[in-house]
Amino acid sequence: MLNKYFPKITKPIPYEGKNSKNPFAFRYYNKDQRVGSKTMAEHLRFSVAYWHSLLGNGSDMFGGPSFERAWRQPSDPMDRSKATLEAAFEFFQKLGVEYYCFHDRDIAPEGDNFSQSIKNLQTIVGLAKGMQKETGVKLLWGTANLFGSPIYSQGAGTSPNAHVMAHAAAQVKNAIDATKELAGENYVFWGGREGYETLLNTDLKREQEQMARFLHMAVDYKRKIGFKGQFLIEPKPKEPTKHQYDTDAATTLYFLNEYDLIDHFKLNIEANHATLAGHSFEHELAVASAAGKLGSVDANRGDQLLGWDTDQFPTDIYSATLAMMVVLGQNGLGKGGFNFDAKVRRSSNDPYDLFHAHIGGMDAFARGLLIAHEIMQDKVFSKFIEERYSSFDSGIGAKIMAGKVGFRDLEQWIIKEGKPELESGRQEMLENILNSYISH
Ligand code: XUL
Ligand code: CO
């Protein structure tokens, strides 16, 4: 096992059960434990986000770095990337996660020109491939950073400048190549700059058409090179751009339908993006899932009192339970997984805080999985929901849904049958039942 950057951890984080007081142990995540037909590891497919956990330095809008990682010290950018890669795989192994995710520019530095950037990326991809083989850690998804460079300040695929769009396309081509080379199971599109600030300089329809063309080119390229990973779009309403075109799950599904892309994409739902859009995490998961399009999850959380993307590690058991109910309801995420798109706080300046953060997130979802599984086994809510809609299973309800009656027939029916009687929705009782499963 690699052992250079986290010497205090000498073996993979163990599962010690819920009474353990060891801060470097799992209390719920027991990777080989079977829950229904799969192990916990198979259900959850946890992933570390390279950008936050390896590159994060605590800086925010008001201050520079608050911690320095040993692996970020080499002054030559390629040496720095190589050291970071070593630290990354040491961390993955010691934490005991099976997946990671990256942006092209996270793993390799941009060169002086595009050809050099391609070479840098290929060099690091070659090294990462070796490390994946050595450790068994796999790539959940790759993506391209189309938001950091100043050339993307007015959009990437949706830039008013065709030269910029071409640059973004060339970058995505190489990021897909890198993902394929590393046997990535998905490829993500998150359009942080794909939106607009003011209609005074923006043709909104044109920009959406451009975005669609951009994605169609990606689909064509995927087919040409035989990349078998799942394409995912990650909705987010704002930040950095004021209005982002992929605002939420419903908007994104509409966009994919409108531009004939729906068969080629699923969604990557992020908790903090959901709350920024004014939705709950489980709402966004449920909307994606209802359309058969829930592909993967960026597991994190926002802060109720702050209106921005705080990307905190998820610790809320209630939220994790509701999320796992949606995921179990669709029989898992398939090629997707739970990627911790989350960062330690500015004040958590010790590299071992990365372990505490991930252990907490993994335990929260493991616990959510266990509770959700039990709830679903007992069919507590599903029975109630089935019963609640049962008036559509026979009689007039069945006729309505089968298209056998229209407004005139229903007028006659109502004249005869009179006023409906309503059953209680029993929200409070159901909330109490949910709490009884969470607290025992
Ligand atoms: C930004 C965000 C991204 C995507 C990948 O809010 O979530 O890190 O997950 O580009
Ligand atoms: Co994300």
Describe the protein.
This protein is of the alpha/beta class and 440 residues long. The protein has two domains: 34-378, TIM Barrel, CATH 3.20.20.150; 391-439, no CATH class. The protein is built from 16 helices and twelve strands. It has helices spanning 40-44, 50-53, 77-95, 104-107, 114-135, 162-181, 204-225, 249-258, 271-276, 281-290, 317-329, 353-377, 380-388, 395-401, 407-417, 427-439, and strands spanning 34-35, 38-39, 46-49, 99-103, 138-143, 186-189, 195-196, 230-233, 243-244, 265-270, 294-298, 338-340. The strands form three sheets. An eight-stranded parallel beta barrel has the order 3-4-5-6-8-10-11-12, surrounded by four helices. β11, α11 (317-329) and β12 (338-340) form a beta-alpha-beta unit. α6 runs parallel beside α7. The mean pLDDT is 98. It binds D-xylulose (XUL) and cobalt (II) ion. The site of cobalt (II) ion (CO) has 4 residues, from loops. Residues 234, 270, 298, 341 line the site of cobalt (II) ion (CO).
User: Which structural class is indicated by helix and strand composition?
Assistant: alpha/beta
Number of strands: 12
Q: Any idea what the CATH architecture of the largest domain is?
A: Alpha-Beta Barrel
Annotation field: number of helices:
16
H/E series: EEHEHHEHHEHEEHEEHEHHEHEHHHHH
Ions, cofactors, ligands: which are bound?
Answer: D-xylulose, cobalt (II) ion
Radius of gyration: 24 Å
Strand residue percentage: 5-15%
Domains, number: 2
Distance between the termini: 38 Å
Query: CATH fold name of the largest domain, please?
Result: TIM Barrel
Shape: globular
**Overall mean pLDDT score?**
98
- How many strands, which pairing sense, and closed or not: the largest β-sheet? 8 strands, parallel, barrel
Helix content: 40-55%
Strand order of the largest sheet: 3-4-5-6-8-10-11-12
Instruction: Give the name of the CATH superfamily of the largest domain.
Output: Divalent-metal-dependent TIM barrel enzymes
CATH class label of the largest domain: Alpha Beta
Low-confidence stretches: none
